[in-house]
Design a protein that fits this description.
About 40% of the residues lie in helices and about 15% in strands. It is globular. Strands 3-2-1-4-5-6-7 form a 7-stranded parallel sheet, sandwiched between helices. The longest helix has 22 residues. It has a single domain, classed as NAD(P)-binding Rossmann-like Domain (Rossmann fold), CATH 3.40.50. α1 crosses α6 and α4 packs parallel to α5. It has about 230 residues and is of the alpha/beta class. The chain is built from 6 helices and 7 strands; from the N terminus they run βαβαβαβαβαβαβ. β6, α6 and β7 form a beta-alpha-beta unit. Bound molecules: NADP nicotinamide-adenine-dinucleotide phosphate. The site of NADP nicotinamide-adenine-dinucleotide phosphate (NAP) has 28 residues, from α1. The site of NADP nicotinamide-adenine-dinucleotide phosphate has 28 residues, from α1.
Length: about 230
């Protein structure tokens, strides 16, 4: 905790949707929030939500290194890697171009863990949490219909890399979470999704506040329920 007990969060990918919603929810609870964006419109929305604005493209190593430099000396109670993409509309592994595949798996699986590693020193020992926005679609055993096969494969890859990340943090006393936010009405989730951004992010903020200091790693949903990997 900081001297005035104000908790601090970094939300990566906070320009819109769930990342913006989480930044706003944490700020409304009194957290000191830093969020990242990639453009001016996102910066304006994030600043209006009460967060400090930083910039990063998680797929660009130079951009990640610049963010790490910019945050040098700051310590966060929560680093939440939310950024993600859906991938090509067709979602068909057979017709996807190499570029489509590379971009999807880089942004959704490899880059989140790379940036988490780059920021690991910025996470507070003891009560600190590193969280990754995953999806129930990343659960391999739950795949019985092949729905959006490329996206779900990228989240399954993320889940595997999150477990490797957790295994690699050695003596660091921090809690690592993969989080399923529910099916949420965002640009990615679509208008027919049952959950609002506000309801999902209230749940996620509750989970984070409850799990802090537990050192109990896991895959959980926005209600705190354990999910099968
Ligand atoms: N909505 C759902 O029902 C649902 C369900 C399960 C999991 N999720 C996951 O939740 C996360 C957020 O989804 P959402 O529904 O809020 O999607 P969204 O509205 O499309 O927002 C995606 C966010 O990720 C950022 N982003 C994408 N690529 C990035 C990159 N290379 N570097 C930095 N930021 C990048 C976007 O920034 P820009 O504005 O700059 O593009 C935006 O802030 C994703 O990981 C998604 O897979 C969503």
């Amino acid at each position: 905790m900081t001297l005035n007990n104000q908790r601090t969060a970094l939300v990566v990918g906070a320009s819109r949707g769930l990342g913006l919603g989480l930044a706003a929810e944490l700020a409304s609870r009194g957290w000191n929030v830093v969020g990242t964006v990639r453009d001016e419109a996102g910066a304006a929305r994030l600043a209006a939500a009460g967060a400090r604005v930083e910039r990063v493209d998680i797929a660009d190593p130079a951009s990640v290194a610049a963010l790490a430099r910019s945050l040098a000396g700051e310590i966060f109670d929560l680093v939440f890697i939310n950024a993600g993409i859906k991938g090509p509309e067709h979602q068909d592994a057979a017709q996807a171009s190499d570029d489509e595949i590379a971009t999807l798996f880089l942004v959704n699986a490899v880059a989140p863990v790379r940036i988490a590693r780059a920021l690991l020193d910025r996470v507070r020992d003891g009560i600190g949490i590193v969280a990754f926005m995953s999806s129930d679609l990343g659960n391999i055993a739950g795949n019985s219909d092949g729905y959006i096969e490329l996206y779900r494969a990228s989240k399954a890859a993320l889940n595997s890399l999150v477990r490797s990340f957790t295994a690699s943090i050695g003596g660091r006393r921090i809690t690592v979470l993969a989080v399923h936010p529910g099916w949420v009405r965002t640009d990615m989730g679509g208008a027919e999704a049952p959950l609002s951004v506000e309801a999902s992010c209230r749940g996620i903020a509750d989970v984070v506040e409850r799990r802090a200091g537990s050192l109990r790693h896991g895959f959980v949903d926005y209600r705190g329920r354990d999910m099968a990997w």
